[in-house]
């Protein structure tokens, strides 16, 4: 097997396993602490350090990877996740808000080291040649889409494990799984992938090109628009208002994210006709964001009109998920297409720093907005964030043609 493809498959497999636990942790924490009587805002604060440390990790992670290699930072992230899971598999009396926030901080570091490393490596292991940009779009869409599908399975797994074996045993079992997977990745992967020939200065973390800055700004609002209802508001609404049990809530969110992942992986085929053999352009992000804004607004109006809440959410969120998935796939392609090989790790790290900042804002707003304004308020905040992402995307330039096609 070609070495680049083998590396891609091992990285993808490890990332898949990690993503299962990432989705499961979220569902376990939300449902377990909701059962214990914690308020939506308290639950949201449990994810505060997860997002804050994700921002920091993305900021410095690309710089670290440019010095020690992408696969090494990915493996380090896997081992940190083992520690985070182990911290949560303790006596329930230890699980205060502050303690859980600390464990989630480590999980946030681990997650963003893995995401930055896995997605950056795609550009570096991709074979060069004709139609490299369309192959890049396909490979990154498959990696990202499959990751999100597995995260959806993780949501279901979290709800199921909480129902079957409880919070503590679920965390311990996942810690063992991740330990075995990342020991194998450490053994087989080349560790120098992505090291820069000219070592970047730390100050260069924030020195980006105009298109990277614009895309990162759009990414901030795009992911804030999802998490402002998804992280706390939606699962708490389904559990408390519709009366769904843990498995039902976990299954619904799992199906949503699985469908989202399938659409994201299929994005290159869905968009092929519109790009004349090239990957998406800056205008693609703008157009899909404008379309996306219609759906949270429509769901909010349906709920305000007194329509069946469960049915309105299921139909509306299915449409939102499909359009959001394509928009996210376009973004994931553009960050790599705008980046030179030597700068890809640092650019992707900066871009996902903006991504994590958007999730942080959305997470805190999700708890506050749901507690003060209900699910309808969460959806109007989502609409505003999508419109902000669309407005920023108007400034995105076309993608430069690959060197061989200029």
Detailed description of the structure:
The chain is mostly helical and 406 residues long. The chain has one domain (3-189, 205-398): MFS general substrate transporter like domains (Growth Hormone, Chain: A). It is 79% helix and 0% strand. It has 14 helices and no strands. The chain has helices spanning 3-35, 40-46, 48-68, 70-88, 97-125, 132-164, 167-188, 210-230, 233-240, 246-271, 282-292, 294-304, 309-337, 344-393. The longest helix has 50 residues, at 344-393. The protein is globular, with a radius of gyration of 20 Å.
List the keywords.
Growth Hormone, Chain: A; 406 residues; mainly alpha; 79% helix
Q: Could you name the ranges where pLDDT drops below 50 across 5 or more consecutive residues?
A: none
- Beta-strand content bin: under 5%
**At the fourth CATH level, what is the homologous superfamily?**
MFS general substrate transporter like domains
Order of helices and strands: HHHHHHHHHHHHHH
CATH class: Mainly Alpha
How many structural domains can be distinguished in the coordinates? 1
